[in-house]
Design brief:
single chain; EC 1.-.-.-; oxidoreductase activity; five-stranded antiparallel β-sheet; seven-stranded mixed β-sheet
Length: 472
């Protein structure tokens, strides 16, 4: 058994843990990071990067097919082997060598193995070779272990060996048919992907698609999935699942119908990766989400931080990395007796987690959103004005594609006359999102936005159309 001491121990070397460690190291602390799988984590190898890389092939073909002069050059479908090769290159064949080299260059120690808290500020790591290392933290421990796919309590589901997002994004043999349980971001993105591969896709959702977003977003994605040949069944649940003699999966639905598919993907939510973490040594319970303040410190435990998915604030890589920058900086500041800036929008506060979270769903069409929807703003008691615009009316849309379809909605706080929410639905609308995020975070007055002139002809001209509808 080896014992080592550092200022900060980070459990989990995904994108979030890496950023916590890096910022604390830059702040003057000694840092060790513990990882049981690949350095770079879920986003790099099984989520954001491989999924968006795989989706791009189909999106590029669809875009070309909607431009006369380019469509004639498209003579086939997605080349699945080529798409998978591209995915493999993006994930470096699931080799984390370059990420390990980066840790070393940043002065961050790496210990591989399973970590658990064994006392206050103490982490014990069981390494793959059977060795045990005890790590002691002078100042803090940061839990950055992320989340895992939720498998709902459905009869026969576990025995059917379903896919989660990990199996879907690391697929080697594309199934002829795929049933997808869920209607959220992962479910709709994977439905878009596999329908583009030519798989017979059935989506089963107990409510509408992309619930929680503006209703027109889910409606547009559902229409596109149906147009792509997918069978979309909403308002229905799965009662039972059975794998037939190691072959197809049969799902019995609450409406009495059955769905049969070669493979089943479950995308119904996430659970925290806090099992067997020894949280009782911090007065907490294993398996639960960790409640934190805006500096990402676990409430009631002055030496423990929880950053990224594990705190359930915003389960998105970019928000986790945003939290990580604040957390790494504040851990260093507290350890070295520096000033702590934890007021709203301070350097050490993850204020944007509350009402300014941007998200892109890479479906067909793309859905890009930030801040409030009309429903959430009304629920919060904010007096709003809703501004809707058909993106196909823009000159930029006509130059972009021959049959561009899309919608943009702005949510304006009428009393303060500032933007508090925006949703864009349409091809490549992800590139419109950051301007809306800046306007919301900066609380830019509507009157000032008149002086932010959008270039012509582009889709960003929608900002002028919104302003014209709102009026001076």
């Amino acid at each position: 058994m080896t014992t080592r001491e550092f200022d900060l121990i980070v459990i989990g070397a995904g994108a979030v843990g890496e950023n916590v460690a890096d910022r604390a190291r830059q702040g003057g602390l000694s840092v060790v990071i513990v990882e049981r799988e690949l350095v770079g984590g879920e986003c790099s190898y099984w989520a954001c990067m491989p999924s968006k890389g795989l989706l791009r092939s189909g999106a590029a073909i669809r875009a070309a097919r909607d431009v006369d002069g380019a469509s004639q050059a498209v003579t086939g479908k997605v080349d699945i082997a080529g798409a998978l090769r591209r995915r493999d290159a993006i994930v470096h064949e699931w080799n984390d060598g370059s990420q390990v080299e980066w840790l070393q260059s940043a002065g961050i120690e790496l210990v591989r193995g399973d970590a658990r808290l064994t006392a206050e500020r103490e982490v014990t790591v069981d390494e793959p070779d059977g060795a045990t290392t005890v790590l002691l933290a002078r100042h803090a421990v940061a839990v950055c272990t992320g989340s895992a796919a939720l498998l709902p309590d459905i009869e026969g589901l576990q025995d059917a060996a379903p896919w989660t997002s990990r199996e879907a994004t690391s697929v080697r043999d594309v199934p002829a048919s795929l049933a997808i349980l869920g209607g959220g971001v992962v479910a709709t993105e994977m439905a878009t992907l596999f329908a583009g591969f030519g798989t017979d896709v059935t989506v089963i959702a107990r409510s509408s698609l992309l619930g929680g977003m503006e209703p027109f977003a889910g409606e547009a994605v559902e229409t596109a999935l149906r147009d792509a040949g997918a069978d979309v069944r909403t308002g229905v649940e799965v009662d039972r699942v059975a794998r037939i003699d190691g072959g197809d999966v049969v799902l019995t639905l609450s409406d009495g119908h059955e769905v049969r598919a070669q493979q089943l993907l479950v995308a119904t939510g996430r659970v925290p990766r806090t099992m067997d973490l020894g949280l009782e040594h911090a007065g907490l319970t294993d398996g639960e989400w960790l409640d934190v303040d805006d500096t990402l410190r676990v409430r009631g435990v002055d030496w423990l931080y929880a950053v990224g998915d594990v705190n359930h604030r915003a389960l998105l890589t970019h928000q986790g990395k945003y939290q990580a920058r604040a957390a790494g900086d504040v851990i260093a500041a507290r350890a070295l007796g520096r000033d702590v800036h934890d007021a709203p929008w301070g350097a050490h506060a993850a204020t944007a987690d509350h009402d300014a979270v941007p998200q892109v769903t890479f479906t067909d069409p793309e859905v890009a959103s930030v801040g409030h929807t009309a429903a959430s703003a009304e629920k919060a008691g904010i007096g709003i004005r809703v501004l809707d615009y058909d993106l196909s009316w823009l000159a930029g849309a006509s130059t972009y594609a021959d049959h561009y379809r899309g919608t943009a909605r702005a949510i304006v706080d009428e009393e303060r006359r500032v933007l508090i929410g925006a949703t864009f639905v349409g091809p490549d609308t992800a590139e419109l999102l950051h301007a809306a995020t800046v306007a919301i975070v900066g609380e830019v007055p509507i009157d000032r936005l008149w002086h932010a002139v959008p270039p012509y002809p582009t889709l960003s001209e929608v900002w002028l159309r919104w302003l014209e509808e709102f009026g001076r």
